[in-house]
């Protein structure tokens, strides 16, 4: 008899657990239970669920077959929709639809090489001047890159992501180059010659074409690979749920809390807590990173030997640049059709675009004098927070008022009451990967801009890019569209306002970071941002990409080194306090 009972014990256990789950699922109807009892039983139910579903964590229960919603929020106008289609077509990556090939046929930086092309003969209009075999300031250097696979065979298609620069550490000089994909395994690099003296050429393979194909798939199919969470609390009850721009719904998923912004239409959702209302949300935070996103074969494309790996030269990799030929300007437009935004010389950034003369603000008194009577608002991610931190640390008269603001999150404010200077920083709205942000502090940049009076004494800095790297480009386009509208409204009602928009920048990569924050994601976001703000009067585009890539000694970092930040601040202050106006006064 005992043997028969033990035979049915598992069935009784399952029935008992099912009964408990059924009871606990309906505990919210038992109004006479106090909050403490409900909380305890809910924790019991969560524990039982975890036992019955091994291997699933509280933030990883998303269906891998989910779909991602692109067309949420306010619909673009017909003109904006046309702009979006044009931009997406222009950013289509070469070879994106190629079939998957064995890893051994992928691009190998160790087998690949580049060759410096000889300068054109004198009198060709090239700007080389002088005798054959020399390069001069105002001309250009041409390099041809030959990509080969791991078998040492030439690649026959394009799609590799390469970066190039020419630098002279001894002169504190450097400038980025333009890489042109010939789509046959060869890449033409054009480098402007902007200083006299030694210069070394560097070509870097960021990702092979095959790795780019994997990154493109992840961006389109797995935008949830960075996931977010929110804490909900009421009395003794608390629960944390997954949040994102779009979440799957259905029989296996809970209902959604809709936090779409009423003014911009920017979407944001969280799974609804089982026992709490949507208006009990306390905060927002990064949940974590999804793992095991790649197949074994795909993982081989992301090794420390193939990510941001140098491509070696065959022959020389350095040249000597002679002074400019007589009558040739620094940047001969017929010679160097590619004109970067600037270059470094003696450690200082020298813009090539039309702007007030670049100045050096090397002491705090010069910064104080320039910012006297100014309101400096900074909105966005941590790369613009660097500017707040730099100024706050460098100018002793500024006193920070930081009442209970979480470190690295903000919001921050610093004031110099004697010279009437105010600095402020506030992070942009979700998606934002900061540790924990209070729900009440989640603000969209467009809405914040609409709340500013603006005017000649107002400086606005915007940096918004890194936290969008895991999403399809349409998501970033939509966010920038709202910001651009708000910038246009601000400049329309207060034409004297200075608006500075910071571009993306390259950073240090490893196999894991590449899947979430690769420079390939960043360079495409960068292209979108430039296109969206190009030609908007009153907006200064600060080229963080070139200022990071061109630096002759500093590594690529998500948060650029202090001397790069100093050059960025010097550039901004050169617009705030133009040297030409000071001389006139």
In short, what is this structure?
This protein is of the alpha+beta class. 28% of the residues lie in helices and 23% in strands. Helix 7 packs across helix 13 and helix 9 (473-493) packs parallel to helix 11.
Topology:
Blueprint: H1 2-25, H2 35-52, H3 78-90, E1 113-116, E2 135-136, E3 140-146, E4 161-168, E5 173-176, E6 178-181, E7 186-192, E8 197-207, H4 209-221, E9 226-234, E10 237-244, E11 256-258, E12 269-271, E13 283-289, H5 296-299, E14 309-313, E15 318-322, E16 342-345, E17 348-351, H6 364-371, E18 375-380, H7 382-394, E19 399-401, E20 412-416, E21 421-427, E22 437-438, H8 445-450, E23 458-463, H9 473-493, E24 498-502, H10 514-517, H11 519-533, E25 539-542, H12 544-549, H13 562-576, H14 579-584
Parallel strand pairs: 1-14, 2-15, 18-21, 18-23, 23-24, 24-25
Antiparallel strand pairs: 1-3, 3-7, 4-5, 4-8, 6-7, 8-14, 8-15, 9-10, 9-13, 10-12, 11-12, 13-22, 16-17, 19-20, 20-21
Describe the structure.
This protein is α+β, with helices and mostly antiparallel strands. It folds into three domains: 56 residues; 133 residues, Sandwich (Immunoglobulin-like); 232 residues, Rossmann fold. It is built from 14 helices and 25 strands. The strands form four sheets. Strands 1, 2, 3, 4, 5, 6, 7, 8, 14 and 15 form a ten-stranded mixed β-sheet that branches. It has a seven-stranded mixed β-sheet with strand order 19-20-21-18-23-24-25, covered by helices on one side. A six-stranded antiparallel β-sheet has the order 11-12-10-9-13-22. α9 links the parallel β23 and β24. α1 crosses α2, α7 crosses α13 and α9 runs parallel beside α11. The longest helix is centred in the N-terminal third of the chain and has 24 residues. The C terminus is likely disordered.
């Amino acid at each position: 008899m005992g043997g028969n009972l033990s035979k049915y014990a598992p069935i009784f256990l399952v029935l008992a657990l099912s009964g408990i789950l059924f009871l606990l699922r309906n505990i919210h109807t038992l109004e006479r239970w106090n909050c403490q009892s409900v909380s305890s039983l809910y924790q019991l139910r969560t524990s039982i669920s975890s036992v019955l579903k091994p291997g699933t964590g509280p933030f990883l229960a998303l269906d891998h077959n989910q779909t991602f919603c692109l067309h949420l929020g306010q619909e673009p106008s017909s003109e904006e929709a046309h702009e979006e289609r044009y931009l997406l077509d222009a950013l289509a990556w070469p070879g994106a639809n190629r079939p998957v090939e064995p890893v051994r046929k992928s691009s190998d930086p160790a087998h690949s090489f580049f060759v410096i092309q000889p300068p054109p003969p004198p009198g060709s209009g090239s700007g080389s001047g002088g005798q054959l075999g020399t390069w001069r300031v105002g001309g250009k250097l041409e390099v041809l890159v030959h990509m080969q696979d791991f078998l040492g065979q030439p690649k026959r298609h394009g799609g590799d992501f390469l970066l190039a620069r020419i630098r002279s550490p001894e002169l504190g000089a450097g400038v980025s180059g333009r890489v042109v994909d010939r789509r046959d395994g060869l890449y033409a690099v054009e480098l402007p010659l902007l200083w006299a003296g030694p210069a070394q050429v560097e070509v870097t393979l960021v990702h092979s074409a095959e790795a780019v194909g994997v990154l493109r798939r992840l961006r389109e199919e797995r935008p949830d690979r960075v996931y977010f969470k929110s804490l909900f609390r009421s009395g003794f009850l608390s629960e944390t749920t997954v949040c994102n721009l779009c979440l799957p719904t259905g029989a296996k998923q809970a209902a959604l809390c809709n936090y779409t912004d009423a003014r911009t239409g920017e979407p944001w959702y969280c799974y609804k807590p089982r026992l709490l209302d949507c208006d009990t949300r306390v905060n927002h935070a990064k949940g974590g990173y999804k793992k095991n996103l790649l197949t074994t074969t795909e993982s081989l494309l992301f090794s420390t030997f193939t990510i941001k790996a140098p491509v070696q030269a065959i022959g020389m990799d350095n040249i000597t640049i002679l002074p400019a030929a007589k009558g040739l300007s620094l940047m001969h437009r017929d010679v160097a059709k590619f004109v970067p935004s600037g270059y470094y010389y003696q450690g200082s950034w020298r813009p090539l675009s039309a702007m007030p003369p670049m100045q050096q603000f090397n002491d705090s008194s010069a910064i104080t004098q320039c910012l006297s009577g100014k309101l400096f608002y900074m909105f966005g991610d941590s790369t613009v927070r660097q500017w707040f931190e730099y100024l706050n640390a460098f100018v002793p008269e500024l006193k920070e008022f930081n009442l209970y603001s979480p470190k690295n999150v903000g919001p921050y404010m610093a004031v110099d009451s004697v010279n009437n200077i105010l600095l402020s920083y506030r992070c942009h709205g979700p998606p934002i990967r900061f540790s924990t942000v209070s729900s009440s502090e989640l603000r969209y940049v467009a809405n914040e801009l609409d709340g500013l009076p603006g005017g000649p004494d107002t400086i606005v800095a915007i940096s918004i890019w890194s936290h969008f790297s895991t999403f399809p480009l349409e998501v970033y386009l939509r966010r920038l569209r709202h910001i651009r509208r708000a910038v246009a409204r601000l400049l329309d009602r207060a034409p004297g306002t200075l608006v500075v928009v910071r571009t993306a920048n390259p950073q240090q990569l490893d196999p894991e970071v590449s899947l979430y924050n690769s420079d390939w994601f960043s360079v495409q976001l960068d292209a979108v941002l430039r296109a969206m703000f190009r030609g908007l009067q009153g907006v200064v585009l600060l080229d963080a990409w070139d200022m990071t890539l061109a630096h002759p000694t500093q590594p690529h970092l998500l948060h650029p080194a202090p001397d790069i930040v100093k050059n960025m601040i010097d550039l901004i202050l050169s617009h705030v306090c133009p040297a030409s106006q000071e001389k006139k006064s």
